[in-house]
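Task card 7
Instruction: Convert sequence to structure tokens.
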Amino acid sequence: MKTALVCGAGGFIGSHLVKRLKSEGFWVRGVDLKFPEFGATVADDFIKGDLRDPYVCRAVVDRKFDEVYQLAADMGGAGFVFTGENDADIMHNSATINLNMLDVCHRRNIKRVFYSSSACMYPEYNQLDPDNPKCSEESAYPAAPDSEYGWEKMFSERLYLAYARNYGLEARVARYHNIFGPEGTWRGGREKAPAALCRKIAEMAEGGSIEVWGDGKQTRSFLYVDECVEGTIRLTRSDFQGPVNIGSEEMISINDFARMIIKISGKNLHIRNISGPEGVRGRNSDNKLIREKLSWAPSQSLEAGMIKTYAWISAQVLKGKQAA
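Output:
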């Protein structure tokens, strides 16, 4: 039986990845600071521990694994990443996790290690035009991310690739672009735009208005979690090291995105644009390289994913109201 370790298995993408690996017959160990929030883990073994602690990392990696997926990080949406209030924790916590995990994987002679980087590492100067952002993989340098979160991701990418060059680690690096779906954080300040908008719309009474940060003309693309997991596994098992984008090329303005979700909800709501953290003006995945190297790219429409996501979040909102 093949074995896999998923770091960050209590999180949104990690918990979905565990389910996928189990469906393939893997023996899976998960590790995180917390258990999955919206259901019991299906991991064969789950260690609740802090990967900033090297002793915890050594206890977690007490054997060889066929595949290691390192998704653990201190992260969140724009309200967490772009305020500046969490910069030191974001950089220190995530970098420490990656330094620790690479050290123990190297010492255990584990070869195949996947690292989840982020599109936030792309330079701000290529993302000033909301209609024509440039996020092809080779455009990452000269480096100029717009957040400390992006700078840490850039550092850790280079760290994994350095271990690959110096120690023979078979690193695989992907740059995620705004992953969304059911069973993700949807309140509390760390939620990302799809979940935040779904929550606002689900909570709002007919005829009301929802707040959208910025002028709403900023653009993004969003990728459904099942496609993210598919791309992650394909990259990990391929002969391509990366870095490579895992994201959708279906770019949309944030106001149009809000209108899409309002339509899905069936409500008559208005949008009120207010000042708030919004990140770069435009971002969209460039999938030329992933098509070339993996003969695959995500294909599900944004609306199809949002129908499932809104249904799940609106059910959570209803549960909350009933419990109150």
